Amino acid sequence: MAGAKVSDLPLRVASAAVMLAVAGGALWLGGWWFDTLVALVALTCFAELARLVVKATPSLLWRIAGIAAGALYVALATRALIMLEREMIVGILALVIATDVGAYASGRSIGGPKIAPKISPSKTWAGLGGGMLAAALVTVALFYSNVGARALGELRVMTGVAFALGALLAVLAQAGDFLESWLKRKAGVKDSSRLIPGHGGVFDRVDGLLPVAIVAAELWYRGHP
């Protein structure tokens, strides 16, 4: 098994590089390039989510309800990513990546009790804490990179707000991950699809991004009426 993981590493790295190049290029070009990419990702993600719901639910009524809820879930995240400004999208992506990296690093190095072993056996409380800390620090860094000249007292308050917001969004990212893990468990599959070599499906890659985009957009719109 270990040998299989090692031999799979070059494929995973190559796939990740391609995904990063495509996403980064579309974000840099902006306009219809980015909107088209978001739409394609959203449609593929919804198709994978619907497939999981069908496999996970024996009742037709529950299938219809699950697919409808999934459609709304993906649509709200899609709207958020299309409507938000480029800098905000970069910040959201940075936060989600930081959450994943922080959770992986602290979970592997510290270990400890699992959060919900029947849903996601690899997720630990230490990993959640590490993801929250990493996301909080990234959010504070993004805040200071965009802040102008402000009073020291206001900066202290806003730093605390940014730290708390980053930690909260990290919890949402992990919740999105747990939601997909639960669906995959119910459906009896390992990945949402085999579309991306070495990485599973599109839903596997954006499960944490969806709830963060929705909530971040809502907070942004409320702060900028």
TrEMBL record:
<keyword id="KW-1003">Cell membrane</keyword>
<dbReference type="GO" id="GO:0016779">
    <property type="term" value="F:nucleotidyltransferase activity"/>
</dbReference>
<comment type="pathway">
    <text>Lipid metabolism.</text>
</comment>
<keyword id="KW-0444">Lipid biosynthesis</keyword>
<feature type="transmembrane region" description="Helical">
    <location>
        <begin position="61"/>
        <end position="82"/>
    </location>
</feature>
<feature type="transmembrane region" description="Helical">
    <location>
        <begin position="88"/>
        <end position="105"/>
    </location>
</feature>
<keyword id="KW-0472">Membrane</keyword>
<feature type="transmembrane region" description="Helical">
    <location>
        <begin position="157"/>
        <end position="176"/>
    </location>
</feature>
<comment type="similarity">
    <text>Belongs to the CDS family.</text>
</comment>
<protein>
    <recommendedName>
        <fullName>Phosphatidate cytidylyltransferase</fullName>
        <ecNumber>2.7.7.41</ecNumber>
    </recommendedName>
</protein>
<dbReference type="InterPro" id="IPR000374">
    <property type="entry name" value="PC_trans"/>
</dbReference>
<keyword id="KW-0548">Nucleotidyltransferase</keyword>
<keyword id="KW-1208">Phospholipid metabolism</keyword>
<comment type="pathway">
    <text>Phospholipid metabolism; CDP-diacylglycerol biosynthesis; CDP-diacylglycerol from sn-glycerol 3-phosphate: step 3/3.</text>
</comment>
<keyword id="KW-1133">Transmembrane helix</keyword>
<keyword id="KW-0443">Lipid metabolism</keyword>
<feature type="transmembrane region" description="Helical">
    <location>
        <begin position="9"/>
        <end position="30"/>
    </location>
</feature>
<keyword id="KW-0812">Transmembrane</keyword>
<keyword id="KW-0594">Phospholipid biosynthesis</keyword>
<feature type="transmembrane region" description="Helical">
    <location>
        <begin position="125"/>
        <end position="145"/>
    </location>
</feature>
<keyword id="KW-0808">Transferase</keyword>
<dbReference type="Pfam" id="PF01148">
    <property type="entry name" value="CTP_transf_1"/>
</dbReference>
